[in-house]
Structures are given as structure tokens and as C-alpha cells.
């Protein structure tokens, strides 16, 4: 029995696109149908069930006997979809093969992805991790029109970016919606590490009375952030170029009701900045790559002690599995 999501036939296309865009469809199995329903195979993970909360059509998660795909030599691996660009990881069995064989396999998978998803214009294979202070993906385009510039739609907003020059992950979509849902009237929100603007712009669009400061170091990402503010017609985002380290000025001292820190690789090194920006009573959302929720909470508590601030942890949770030993955790805490 395979984990599957059941939707009515009229909603099937919408649901299929959603599952692919979140990378949670299980391509090893074929969908099945009953008289009025379609059953899509789901990836077996908590992340999949969490992501389904955003699926706008009526659905149910069930166990269903589905047929394993047999005809294909290469099954489609999960892939991230950013706008019209799909990025996938070459399955393990090809990793130690000669370069020519790997390239052939990558091209075949890319063609299969394009055949499956008509709106994809470019397909790329990962060539390494997300690297450097700007968190840039390493990939090689293997099919399609080769453009790495696209517009990604999320929660009613549009984000233009060049995926070879700026960071974007559709996997954080749930977090962006969650944080946006917490914002109150007239809040001042600070987003250091804003990238091309998803957290800041989604918050600003949903809360016109809020003031949202968005800081970004990567000049390319910053250029798109400014462009995306215009594209989404939000007038309450204040973009700040440069290093978050330089935010410790008089101007920004304790002005924020909320600080969002989406730099899980090294956010621990910027907790002093968050304490500088956040008001008494303010909330900080601290994203962090670690091995356990406890160690992320410890990092936060030690930083609070160093800064001489009292805090209360509101909630900590796992955002996603990052690698076999590392999880991304978010700790929401309030400054007392
Ligand atoms: C993981 S990305 C998150 C981007 C965006 N918030 C999102 O959710 O897509 C982290 C971003 O922080 C930026 N960054 C890294 N170090 C920085 C620093 N010292 N000051 C400001 N931004 C920084 C990177 O360039 C990158 O765009």
C-alpha cells in the first residue's frame, strides 16, 4: 500500500501541479482512478503531509494499492520547480558512473520531466550543494531553452530571479505563509537575509499596515528584491542593501516587533544583530541547520545570556530534513 492523496477528478490537474511544484509526488508509482477520484502517489515524509496543508482543493491522505512504474529505465527523481525551471538531483545509482553515462542519464531524466510538465522551459541537474555566503545553487542546464531567469509564483506574489545568481527555495513556502499569518496590525518587521524578497513581500502584501525592512548582501539578489517590490506593487517594504552586520546602528536599535532570520547556515552568528533590532516584547524567528531542536534552542539561550536579554521560547519545530544528519529547525522566541 502506498501513501496517496485523493482528489476529485475535476481538481486533479490543479492537485498534480501543486504536488510537483512542492516536490512531494512519488514518481515511482502510477496515479490511479476510481469513479470520481484520482489518487496521486505521495512521497513518504512528514514534509509531504505538512505541505499538503497548502493544497487548496478538497483532498484526503489515504493508503492505496498503486501500480509501480515498470516501463521506464530511469524513474523520475523528485525535483524543485522554481517558476518554469526544474532542478533535480541525479539518482544515487549514477553517481559513480563515467561522466558520459551520467550526462546521458541526466538528459533522459530532463526530457522525461519536460514531457511530464508542459510548463517547464528549462531543466537543470544539481552539480553540488547550495554554496557560499549568497547560498547559490550549483547546477548544469541539461534541457530546454537554457534561460535561468524565471518568475516564481507563491501565495499570490511573483518573484523574478536568476536561479544561477540568487537563492530561492519553494520548500520554504509553508514557513512564509506561517510567519505571514502571525503578523498583527502596524507591526514593524525586519527580514535580514531577505534574498529576492519572498518573506518580506508576502508579509507586506498581506499586511498593508505593516512596515517591512528587507536586507540583502548579494547585489544580484538585492537587484531582484527591488524589482520584485515593484512587480508586486507593495509600498511598505524598505530595501536595505549590504551586510546584516551593519544593521547595528542607532537608526535600527530596537525598532522591530518581529525579526525573521532565514539564514540557517549561519544565523547563530547574527543573533546579536537580531537582539539589536528587536523591541522588548518582540518576536524572533531563528532558522538553523542543526542535529536537534534542543541544540538550536541552546544556541538561542546562550546568545540571549551573552546579550543580557531575557527570552521565552514560544515554539520550536523541524522545518525540513536537509541531509541525512542535518535538519532545519525554526525557533520562535519572544524577548521579555
Ligand atoms: C537562505 S537565503 C534566504 C533568502 C530568502 N529569505 C528566501 O527565503 O528565499 C539567505 C540569504 O541571505 C543572504 N545573506 C548571506 N549573508 C548575509 C549577510 N551577512 N547580510 C545580509 N544578507 C546575507 C544571502 O545572499 C541569501 O540571499
Jot down its keywords.
4-stranded antiparallel sheet; alpha/beta; 34% strand; globular; 8 helices; GMP Synthetase, Chain A, domain 3; Alpha-Beta Plaits; 336 residues; 17 strands; 3 domains; Rossmann fold; binds S-adenosylmethionine
Describe it.
The chain is an alpha/beta fold. The chain has three domains: 2-64, Alpha-Beta Plaits (2-Layer Sandwich); 79-147, Met-10+ protein-like domains (GMP Synthetase, Chain A, domain 3, 2-Layer Sandwich), CATH 3.30.300.110; 168-335, Vaccinia Virus protein VP39 (Rossmann fold, 3-Layer(aba) Sandwich). The protein has helices spanning 12-21, 46-51, 99-116, 173-182, 198-206, 219-231, 271-277, 293-307, and strands at 2-8, 32-33, 37-41, 59-64, 79-82, 85-88, 122-131, 136-144, 149-154, 157-162, 188-191, 211-216, 237-241, 256-261, 278-290, 311-321, 327-335. α4 runs parallel beside α5. The longest helix has 18 residues, at 99-116. The protein is globular and about 65 Å long. The mean pLDDT is 93. The structure holds S-adenosylmethionine (SAM). S-adenosylmethionine (SAM) is lined by residues 133-135, 167-169, 172, 192-195, 198-199, 215-218, 221, 243-245, 262-263.
Amino acid at each position: 500500500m502506498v501513501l496517496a492523496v485523493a482528489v476529485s477528478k475535476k481538481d486533479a490537474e490543479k492537485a498534480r501541479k501543486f504536488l510537483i511544484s512542492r516536490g512531494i509526488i512519488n514518481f515511482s508509482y502510477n496515479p490511479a482512478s476510481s469513479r470520481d477520484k484520482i489518487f496521486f502517489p505521495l512521497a513518504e515524509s512528514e514534509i509531504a503531509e505538512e505541505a499538503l496543508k497548502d493544497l487548496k482543493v478538497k483532498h484526503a491522505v489515504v493508503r492505496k494499492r498503486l501500480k509501480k512504474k515498470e516501463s521506464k529505465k530511469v524513474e523520475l527523481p523528485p525535483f524543485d520547480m522554481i517558476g518554469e525551471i526544474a532542478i533535480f538531483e541525479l539518482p544515487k545509482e549514477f553517481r559513480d558512473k563515467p561522466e558520459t553515462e551520467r550526462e546521458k542519464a541526466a538528459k533522459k531524466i530532463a526530457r522525461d520531466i519536460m514531457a511530464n510538465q508542459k510548463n517547464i522551459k528549462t531543466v537543470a541537474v544539481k552539480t553540488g550543494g547550495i554554496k557560499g555566503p549568497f547560498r547559490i545553487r550549483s547546477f548544469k542546464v541539461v534541457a530546454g531553452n537554457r534561460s535561468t531567469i524565471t518568475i516564481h509564483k507563491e501565495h499570490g506574489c511573483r518573484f523574478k530571479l536568476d536561479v544561477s545568481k540568487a537563492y530561492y527555495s519553494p520548500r520554504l513556502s509553508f514557513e512564509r505563509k506561517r510567519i505571514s499569518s502571525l503578523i498583527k496590525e502596524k507591526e514593524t518587521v525586519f527580514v535580514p537575509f531577505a534574498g529576492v524578497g519572498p518573506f518580506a513581500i508576502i508579509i507586506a502584501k498581506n499586511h498593508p499596515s505593516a512596515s517591512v525592512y528587507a536586507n540583502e548582501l548579494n547585489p544580484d539578489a538585492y537587484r531582484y528584491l527591488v524589482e520584485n517590490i515593484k512587480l508586486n506593487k507593495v509600498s511598505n517594504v524598505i530595501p536595505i542593501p549590504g551586510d546584516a552586520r551593519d544593521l547595528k546602528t542607532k537608526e535600527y536599535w530596537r525598532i522591530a516587533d518581529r525579526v525573521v532570520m532565514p539564514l540557517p547556515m549561519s544565523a547563530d552568528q547574527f543573533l546579536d544583530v537580531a537582539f539589536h533590532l528587536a523591541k522588548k516584547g518582540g518576536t524572533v524567528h531563528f532558522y538553523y541547520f542543526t542535529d536537534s531542536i534542543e541544540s538550536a534552542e541552546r544556541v538561542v539561550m546562550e546568545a540571549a545570556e551573552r546579550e543580557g536579554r531575557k527570552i521565552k521560547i514560544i515554539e520550536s519545530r523541524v522545518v525540513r530534513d536537509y541531509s541525512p544528519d542535518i535538519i532545519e529547525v525554526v525557533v520562535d522566541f519572544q524577548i521579555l
